[in-house]
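Table 4 source record.
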Amino acid sequence: MANKRHQHLAGARINPEPVRGDMSAAELIDTAFLAYNGRRLREACRLFAEKMLAADVTVGMSITGALTPAGLGMSCLIPLIEHGFVDWIVSTGANLYHDAHFGLGLKMFQGSAEADDIALRQAGVVRIYDIFFDYQVLLSTDEFFRRIAAAEEFQHPMSTAEFHYRAGRYVAERERVLKLKQRSLLAAAYHHAVPIYTSSPGDSSIGMNLAVLEMEGLGIRLDPLTDVNETAAIVWSAKRAGGKSAVFILGGGSPKNFILQTEPQIQEVMGVAEKGHDYFLQVTDARPDTGGLSGATPAEAVSWGKIDPSRLPDSVVCYVDSTVALPLITAYALARRAPRKPRRLYEEREPMLKGLTLAYEKVRRRRLKQGRR
């Protein structure tokens, strides 16, 4: 009995030092976040910094929720990119659209969630919960995307990564002219060749403006099927080279599924041998019992082949608002990990896709041969 009791009491003792005013965020997390969702957040920080940021791990991030309007693009996402801590991204189009405001020198303000929305509408002010901005910000950003997308370089079918890379170059140039630094996620991704995909390209103001250009007869087309193949190629290439694949999921929704479906695309649809992502880190406020994807657990993802079952211990779901968790995870990683050399995966899309295509062709030939027997 005593031996069994000892087994249950083998965890670290809860005996923290008092919180001090001069503690860094990383020290606070390590010493005071000992239980409940605080401990989950500490586990998330350690998983990201100690395992996911190893040299042989390719890190994909999915972004949902209005994070860039809240300034988290500038405060967290850009530093993560600049330190080589994020290698590829799947984002809602809305986050990229609102991100562009900052790179264009447009302003957003803190407001009140209890404001009179009828009065705001009459005054020409738009509200995202407690974030306010002038309606003209939307019109100016709309005009920017329509103008650049009408250029000759956009007049062909392309993946959303190619569109965002080309658009990011224009945003980066606007930043340069306006003497702005580290303002836009799109610009940072362009500088570091981080591919950004949008799983539902028509579901944002960017897509709305591109739809108008199509109506006008322009040749721009966003191809989500190319996105499916390119993202699968990123994961396959990382694993084929002997490395690991990690997913860092902020929120849920379509970007969460899109970043995770890379493994079923490789295994189930293409029939190429694979086991699943190696590391899974999600920040969410959704419950699994409601059936929504945002609450789907890593264990559930194992049944789909999305997560390697042998790596399930290296999975953390943190039930915390992303606006709280992301700054803390970012601060922890910057304090505990040296910068990594950027992989510049945007520049490797063609060879990665060629490699996966060759692997699929071998499977396809084998299937055809078996079918003739």
